[in-house]
Amino acid sequence: MSDEQTSQPADAPPVPAPRCINLMCKAMLVYGEAFEQDPDYQAGMTDFWCQCTQKPHGPDGGELSLPMCSDPKRTCYQAY
What are the sequence ranges of the domains in the chain? Predict the structure, then answer.
């Protein structure tokens, strides 16, 4: 295949980084996949919760954050 066939078109939306499908925050509900544009998210004032536990920790008892919940080695991780 040529590079032309495998690359995304210039106007295609960026592919989001992998994360657990159960990770949630208010910005994700309001902004969808563009949640990183939320001023509160950018200021580091976002609280995450897990849809499995409905609490700020996962089923494995670990804390939640975008980097922590993007690790496929985490036992509760489910690909988005």
Answer: 16-70
